Amino acid sequence: MTEAILLVGGKGTRLRPLTMHTPKPMVPAAGVPFLTHQLARARAAGVEHIVLATSYLAEVFEPYFGDGSALGLHLEYVTEVEPLGTGGAIRNVASRLRSAPDEPVLIFNGDILTGLDIEALVDTHRTTGADVSLHLTRVEDPRAFGLVPTDATGRVTAFLEKPQTPEEIVTDQINAGAYVFNRSVIDSIPADRPVSVERETFPGLLAAGAHLQGMVDSTYWLDLGTPQAFVRGSADLVLGRAPSPAVPGRCGDRLVLDTAEVAPDAKLTGGTVIGAGAVVEPGARVDGSTVLDGAVIEAGAQVRDSLVGAGARIGARTVLEGAVIGDGAFVGADNELRAGARIWCGARIDAASIRFSSDQ
Ligand code: GDD
Ligand code: MG
Fold first, then answer.
1. Same structural domain for residues 130 and 193?
2. Is 242 within the bounds of a domain?
3. pTM exceeds 0.85
4. Residue 93 CA to chain centroid, in angstroms?
5. By Cβ atoms counted within 10 A, which residue in 11, 75, 136, 269 is the most buried?
6. What is the residue-wise DSSP string for 252-283?
7. Domain span at residue 314?
8. Which atom of ligand 1 is nearest to the CA of 24?
9. What is the rounded distance in angstroms from the CA atom of residue 62 to the CA atom of residue 73?
10. How many folded domains does the chain comprise?
């Protein structure tokens, strides 16, 4: 039985203010902490033992997931004293692994929503006899990712993390953030110092002649590292476009958690999630958005492609489009906040004081 490591120690800076008090993998997507979807998908692929490599806000994971038995998993937690980077984090959990040196270990970035066939990746790894196998996907603009060119047989020929010059953009295949490592390769990463698996381990292995195998898979794939992507991913889970056994309820246009109160004439569309105890007042419209627990959307407000934090309040007739409202923030009536607007946790915006509109 293949075991897995989940990398969940990043600071999630691009998702601020949502990640000020909550690590990225614990921000709710489709009604449950995002990590739940990854754990449930790994379990469905036959993984039973998962080690979480934690660093930033490490203390919140274990109280929520415990020993993992609710998900049919055996979970362990290892916290870095100082962040060790992706490679250092992998090495740091090695003592918890049970696999023999030549056995495969799955490794996942903790912010990826994907329909990847995990078992197919392990099969590819076994049949090609690779030292490391990587899930690859194709994207239009690869610059924000690790570029991974391969030869005709899928063998990796280079690894270029976040290329800085146009000459380095040699492929549209990127590292999709899921790997199979032979256990012995994990043990060969230097211990007790920061290591980037992307900038150090992969290029080093290639230079030493190791066999890195790529598996291009064009299923659903999204890195939820930005607010826009996070909201999109949550909506796609609700709509059933992104597969997860952990969505609490039937897939459809909306997901309204048990204790939420939604006025009969409010319109919820496009994979909107309304969290526990949240309120949507009459005439409000919420499309493609995530409204976290206890938030209030007042009468006639229009919320689109936005994330409204826990306990936040959106005033009557206010328009949000592509905005992020931090936990507990208050946006008064008759405001207009559009693409990229971010309101910090607990902030207060008076009525009719902001009209931020790209078309003016
Ligand atoms: N434990 C631990 N310690 N985890 C970490 C640390 C650390 O010091 N640093 C990052 N992580 C975790 C993050 O929580 C995340 O789950 C994962 O490692 C990747 O970090 P990101 O910060 O999300 O990296 P990225 O999105 O810029 O790039 C990575 O993912 C891309 C695909 O989405 C790289 O792996 C790219 O090569 C890849 O294309
Ligand atoms: Mg990421």
1. yes
2. no
3. yes
4. 21
5. 136
6. SSEEE-TT-EE-TT-EEETTEEE-TT-EE-TT
7. 253-349
8. 14
9. 13
10. 2
Q: What is the DSSP letter of 155?
A: B
Strands 132-138 and 348-349: unpaired
* Cα–Cα dist 224/254, whole Å: 20
Q: Are residues 157 and 206 in the same domain?
A: yes
266 in the same domain as 118: no
Query: What CATH number corresponds to the domain at position 336?
Result: 2.160.10.10
Q: Are residues 196 and 333 in the same domain?
A: no
| Contact (CB, 8 A) for 5 and 106 | yes
Helix 34-44 to helix 227-239 angle, to the nearest 10 degrees? 50
Which residues lie with the beta carbon below 6 Å from any ligand 1 atom? 7-10, 53-55, 80, 83-86, 89, 109-112, 145-146, 161, 174-175, 177, 198, 223, 225
Identify whether residues 114 and 217 lie together within a single domain: yes
Q: What is the CATH number of the domain that holds 170?
A: 3.90.550.10
**For residue 228, is it within any domain?**
no
Q: What is the pLDDT of residue 99?
A: 96
pLDDT at position 12: 85
**Amino acid identity, position 77:** Y
* Helix, strand, or coil (residue 328): coil
Residues 211 and 294 in one domain: no
Q: Tell which one of 5, 6, 7 to mutate to probe ligand 1, the residue whose CB is within 8 A of the most ligand atoms.
A: 7
Q: What is the pLDDT of residue 357?
A: 62
Q: Are residues 23 and 167 in the same domain?
A: yes
203, 96: one domain = yes
Q: How far apart are CA 73 and CA 39, in angstroms?
A: 8
Q: What is the mean pLDDT of each run of 10 residues along the chain (360 residues)?
A: 92 88 93 96 97 92 95 96 95 97 97 96 97 97 95 97 90 97 97 96 98 95 94 97 92 93 97 97 98 97 97 98 96 94 93 73
